[in-house]
């Protein structure tokens, strides 16, 4: 037993522990680097030991998506029911999803690429309970069925488009080619003098400001449509 950790001190393997380790692995090394063997090595077990809890890599990635959604569950700023109007309700939910995406930029694309629980669920609000929360909240605020579904579609499209762009700027792989290390063009920017001149401005990170402005614009459009639909 010399030099070895006593059995009583070992942390037992579980699905939750495996998913937490997988999410941490993706955060550090990216989705493309994740294999059952490497994950097992991180946990100090053989890869075969993982299959008792996760049947394969596909199930593992589905579980990582669930782990991301659970983080949204724990965000105390995200409301389960509107308390200060639907605008505040949507803003809180949008910023909660963004916080989750920024905390895990390399894992966030899984929300868009793994199959949802039902074909009509749209990322990133792809959990049945969160879609229920979203729709029930809008209905409680006086939206009719068609309006609530239309807002759900517009809201999810806004979130996914903005956040995938933002996490890609933070190192997320959005496709197979993104798994390859980026290299500087052979000729640099010598053939693109305008880009070279504006490179400092192009490199400015205004993601949060752009996100908030786009969210405000979306809420303004929804307000106009609701008012027009009510005949007010």
SSE blueprint and pairings:
Layout (H helix, E strand, L loop, with lengths): L14 H15 L6 H8 L3 H4 L6 H17 L12 H18 L5 H5 L14 H13 L4 H24 L24 H5 L1 H5 L3 H24 L2
Helix pairs in contact: 1-4, 5-8, 7-8, 8-11
The protein's oligomeric status is single chain
Helix count equals 11
Distance between the termini: 79 Å
Helix coverage percent: 55-70%
Number of DSSP-assigned strands: 0
Secondary structure class reads mainly alpha
Give a short account of the largest sheet.
none
Low-pLDDT stretches are: 176-186
Question: What share of the residues does DSSP label as strand, in percent?
Answer: under 5%
Bulk shape:
flat
Task: Compute the average pLDDT.
Answer: 85
Gyration radius from CA atoms, angstroms: 22 Å
Question: What order do the SSEs take from the amino end to the carboxyl end, as H and E?
Answer: HHHHHHHHHHH
């Amino acid at each position: 037993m010399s030099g070895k950790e006593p059995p009583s001190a070992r942390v037992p393997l579980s699905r939750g522990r495996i998913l937490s380790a997988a999410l941490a692995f993706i955060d550090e090394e990216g989705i493309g680097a994740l294999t059952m063997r490497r994950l097992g090595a991180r946990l100090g077990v053989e890869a075969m030991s993982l299959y008792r809890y996760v049947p394969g890599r596909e199930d593992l990635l589905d579980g990582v998506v669930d782990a991301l959604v659970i983080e949204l569950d724990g965000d105390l700023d995200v409301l389960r029911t509107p308390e200060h109007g639907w605008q505040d309700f949507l803003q809180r939910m949008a910023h909660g999803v963004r916080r989750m995406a920024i905390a895990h930029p390399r894992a966030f694309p899984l929300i868009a690429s793994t199959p949802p629980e039902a074909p009509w669920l749209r990322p990133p609000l792809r959990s049945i309970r969160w879609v229920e929360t979203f729709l029930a909240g809008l209905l409680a605020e006086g939206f009719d069925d068609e309006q609530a579904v239309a807002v759900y579609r517009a809201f999810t499209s806004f979130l996914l488009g903005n956040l995938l762009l933002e996490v890609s700027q933070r190192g997320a792989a959005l496709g197979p080619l993104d798994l390859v290390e980026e290299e500087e063009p052979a000729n640099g920017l010598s053939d693109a003098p305008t880009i070279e001149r504006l490179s400092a401005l192009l490199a400015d990170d205004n993601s949060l400001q752009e996100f908030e402005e786009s969210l405000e614009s979306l809420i303004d459009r929804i307000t106009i449509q609701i008012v027009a639909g009510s005949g007010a």
